Amino acid sequence: MNLNLKNPIAFFDLETTGLNVSKDRIVEIAIVKVSPNGNEETKTFRVNPGVPIPAESSAIHGIFDEDVKDEPTFKEIGKIIGKYIEGCDLAGYNSNRFDIPLLAEEFLRADIDIDMRKRKLVDVQTIFHKMEQRTLTAAYKFYCGKDLEGAHGAEADTIATYEVLKSQLDKYENLENDIDYLSKFSTQNKNADFAGMIVFDKKGVETFNFGKNKGKAVEDVLKEQPGYYGWIMNNDFPLYTKKVLTEIKLRNFNM
Q1: Domain extents in the chain
Q2: Residue 207 near residue 199 (C-beta atoms within 8 A)
Q3: CA-to-CA distance for 154 and 61, rounded, in angstroms?
């Protein structure tokens, strides 16, 4: 089943130096851009992360320091990537919890102003887990009847993710072929930031989703514990989380 699109949608996958959204860097990004008319275009970028790639990460995705030493940094190609996905909704596999937050961090580190909160985000893994509980390799076999050759390569994983979503729409009659619907269906929490450290509660109030203040309204915590803001800003939290927290603080200050 082809996707019913109002906007173009960019399926993407990252290969990185590790799994820490705050600290780790992109070494490869693959994007499959699908237009409302059905046209598909694939681009893959290798990226010099500016830091050594740990051996355990290279063992997974097969990208070593030597492979990217002459590649551009994200700061050098970030605007090209941003332009390529301009106006696109975004989709991936486990993307809401990892790829989106890390990509947002890279844009911020490169001083590239892209507000991805305005995009519809479709996480194919969430749909899969709600329906079947499997990995991407198993999902590809289950839905598409194929073995995933080149697993943990960004391009192979990205193309597989796109094919899996189309097969999911074929298989499940209750899944609507609509990106707005799929975005809501594949979202676990309504995040205020991309890392899910600040989320909206049922009343639409921003609340902390971690630590001693989990479940408490951000505004209340900032009033009752004035040092908590500084603690977050001076510690190892994602830049985007800090940005959202600062927006909330300034909003209340201006009021």
Answers
A1: 9-185, 198-254
A2: yes
A3: 8
Query: How do 198-200 and 40-46 pair as beta strands?
Result: unpaired
Placement of tokens 């991936």 in the chain: 92
> Which pTM was predicted?
0.70
- Residues 216-232 as b or e (16 or more Cβ within 10 Å = b): bbbbebbeeeeebbeeb
Tokens representing 155 are 């391009």
- Per the rule left: phi > 0, alpha: psi between -120 and 50, beta: everything else, 9 is beta
Residue in this structure with the two tokens 């486990």, named with its chain if needed: 94
- The answer to whether residues 120 and 68 touch, using CB atoms and an 8 Å cutoff, is no
Please write the tens of the pLDDT for every residue from 172-182.
Answer: 999 999 999 99
Q: pLDDT below 70 — which residues of the chain?
A: 133, 254-255
Structure tokens, 95:
């993307």
Looking at domain 9-185, which CATH architecture does it have?
2-Layer Sandwich (3.30)
Q: Which residues pair with 33 in a beta bridge?
A: 10, 41
Q: Express each pLDDT in 28-47 by its tens digit.
A: 999 999 999 999 999 999 99
Q: Is 120 exposed, middle or buried (0-12, 13-18, 19+ CB in 10 A)?
A: buried
